[in-house]
Amino acid sequence: MTEFQFTLSFAVPVGTLLTDALTDAFFEAGCDDAMIGFGRPGCLAFDFTRAAETASAALTSAERDVVSALPSAVLTEAGPDLVNLSDMAALFGCSRQNMQKYASGSGEKRGAFPLPLVSTAPPLWRLLDIVRWVQREKLWDLPPSLADLAAETARLNLRLQLKKLEAVA
């Protein structure tokens, strides 16, 4: 078993309160390995540290457990997926400045750093692209579980986006 650390965000009916009864329901449903928080009305997020054979199994079981305790909850996002330089630095155990150096192409000659997926301020990259780059450039020894998790959160978020697009069409 491997421990996976990830976040699942859910849309919940506005007015849903994190009462003791709801917290107990999440705990009894199997979410005893998560920290729960409300970011804004209608949104509930879970920071999980879940042991499972694969990232897919961890994400699937966590979603199932949340929905079994609160059937009106609808998964909206999984992370880590889109990351900024600070997120990368935290995941890889280096400084933000070090990641900035790689992203800007300065310093040692390496293969081209992946382009941002979103060129906002700050730019956002798909974690999977960065993990693959780190592996290809042999910068750090990353646990295989991080690549597995990055791939699964990307797949899950893409499926959620496709579902939204199909609902519009």
Q: CA-to-CA gap between the ends?
A: 41 Å
- What integer value in Å does the Rg equal? 18 Å
What summary fits the major beta sheet?
A: 4 strands, antiparallel
Strand portion, in percent?
A: 15-25%
| Order of H and E elements | EHEEHEEHHEHH
Q: Helix- and strand-based class?
A: alpha+beta
| Spans where pLDDT lies below 50 across 5 or more residues | none
Shape: globular
Instruction: Give the % helix.
Output: 40-55%
Mean pLDDT: 93
The number of helical elements comes to 6
Number of strands: 6
Lateral arrangement of strands in the main beta sheet:
2-3-1-4
How does this model look, in words?
By secondary structure, the protein is an alpha+beta fold. Helix content is 46%, strand content 22%. The chain has six helices and six strands. It has helices at residues 20-29, 55-69, 85-92, 96-104, 127-137, 144-168; strands at 2-11, 34-40, 43-52, 74-79, 82-83, 125-126. A hairpin with a 2-residue loop joins strand 2 and strand 3 (43-52). Helix 3 (85-92) packs across helix 4.
How would you summarize what this structure contains?
The protein is of the alpha+beta class. The protein has helices spanning 20-29, 55-69, 85-92, 96-104, 127-137, 144-168, and strands at residues 2-11, 34-40, 43-52, 74-79, 82-83, 125-126. Helix content is 46%, strand content 22%.
What attributes characterize this protein structure?
single chain, 169 residues, alpha+beta, two-stranded antiparallel ribbon, 46% helix, 22% strand
